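Listing S7. Sequence submitted for prediction.
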Amino acid sequence: MTNPLLTILTAPKPFTDPHIITIQTNALRSWKVLGDKVQTFVLGSDPGIAENCEKIGVRHFPDVACNEEGTPLISSMLELGRENRSAALIAIVNSDIILFPEFLDAVENVYADRSEFLLIGQRWDMDVENLVGDTVADFRKFEKKVKNQGHLHKPAGSDYFVFPRNCYASIPDFAIGRAGWDNWFIYQSRWMGRDVIDGTHDITIVHQNHDYGHLPGGKAHYRLPETKRNVKIGGGEHKVFSLLDAPFELVDGKIRKKKLTFARFRRAVEVFPLTNQRSQSLGKIFFYAFHPRRAYRKIRKRLRSIFNG
């Protein structure tokens, strides 16, 4: 068998809650029907993962390194992905995301035009209670419902990250499924001079809505200590980038520069020291100049630690 073009890496939630089982099965099935050009690696040893991987027919790697809370580390996920398959491209995709055939088309279009890149994009949020099916026809039929029944999520995050396998060879030990690491990926690509491409126009993906019962205290992932740790080891909040920081977009199979809006211009000025001057110190100064409330809170916290210490 020839090597696939793309290896998708994911670390799912435990297959214990009936709704989680449904949405993760939908996601993995949608990736499998993308065909032989795509290889899916499911990482982690939580309950139900091995059995469901065997049932769906995707490869399972239980021995991924985890942090103290048992959350898989992205650094280990990437290492396992590179060791076990020589696909030209790697994707990290959340395990509740349904992909459609045009996802692979878009990836191929970008890869044909760029040697180093990061492809990201917005998602459609949608309530999904039942299994979609397990054929291309099933998912094409389901896709027709998305624009009517789903809602386009704000461009604050991204649920897929596609990049050449040689990128991100050395990264901090980020916890998957928590905020912060995805923002750092975007920052790091801009810092390294790689093209960050927003694929929202050409790529429809569905995030199947769910609660946070699988997380400690039922709290959203961005409220957990692991998120704060991700931001900290990533270098701080001035490195929290988003889709707003993607200079390019994929439209009808072609990569083009995004139109300049006031929001994008303001943000470009804010991150100019990082993306153009490669200056961490100036990057922090500009960040806090643009976010005075955060600067005030940080100074206040620092003064408290001094006077209470």
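Caption to Listing S7: primary sequence and predicted structure tokens for the chain studied. Residues 192 and 275 are 8 Å apart (CA to CA). DSSP finds ten helices and 13 strands in the chain.
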